[in-house]
Amino acid sequence: MTAALTREPRRVGAIADRLDGILAGRGIDPSTVAAEEPQAEPVTALELADARIPARYRRALADYPQVIAWADEIARAGRPGPGGPGIAEGPSLLIAGPTGTGKTYQAYGAVRTLLGRGVRLRWEATTSADLHARLRPRAGHDAERDLQTLVRCPLLLLDDLGAAKTSEWTEELTYRLINHRYEHTLPTLITTNLPTAELRTALGDRVASRLAEMTERVILTGPDRRRTAPAA
Ligand SMILES: Nc1ncnc2c1ncn2[C@@H]1O[C@H](COP(=O)(O)OP(=O)(O)OP(=O)(O)O)[C@@H](O)[C@H]1O
Ligand SMILES: [Mg+2]
User: Fold this and answer.
1) Backbone region of residue 73 per phi and psi (left: phi > 0; alpha: psi in -120 to 50; beta: other values)
2) Where is the IstB-like ATP-binding domain (predicted)?
3) Atom number of ligand 1 nearest to Cα 56
4) Which domain does 26 fall in, by range?
5) Cβ(150)–Cβ(159) below 8 Å
6) pLDDT tens digit string along 96-126?
7) Cα dihedral: 69, 100, 159, 183 (round 10)
8) Same domain, 113 and 16
């Protein structure tokens, strides 16, 4: 799928100059040839999204069958629209597992899978620690508006749920976020280091109960890939 946006055609300086020289040598005015060049190359939705994905996950591929199945389900449920199917209501996905097993990689891989399938996506991503920092009340900042942007976003990636220190305030924030997405069945990709049995203690019963109903689950296992992979 291609998005409506385009970028300026690229002319590589030295090559363009050489080409102009060759054309002039053959009695052809280079400016008339340049006028016939395509004015713009289309930019795919995936290319646009790549700019928003952190560099480390920009080539992530969802390769866990449950993650691929989730992306398929969301893509199939998409509402038809002029630029391709739009994301609709659907299940959420909880990706759990120890540090470094590839949870964030699979989550961005899922976003890239949807974009690659031509699903029109408005998506946001945040870690829970960043979410707390971003929404902490401070003068001149409308935290409620920021929260609503994330709460209502058609697809939200909530990374590292349960990893940040909690307080009554953070618990309430997480509850409001999860509860809205639960009530409106908005697809949410959640990653966590917490084993299922500890979700309730760490997040509170109200959040854990909603997650139990709204999410499909995939548990990643294996070694910490950061310690086993050759340095990038
Ligand atoms: N399937 C994969 N193929 C290639 N590289 C991978 C794959 N999965 C993960 N990686 C790489 O392994 C490293 C760790 O992955 P990632 O950050 O997703 O782990 P994580 O489970 O989210 O860890 P944490 O719990 O600390 O957040 C990253 O460099 C990531 O790019
Ligand atoms: Mg991670």
Assistant:
1) alpha
2) 93-207
3) 31
4) 2-42
5) no
6) 999 999 999 999 999 999 988 888 888 999 9
7) 40
8) no
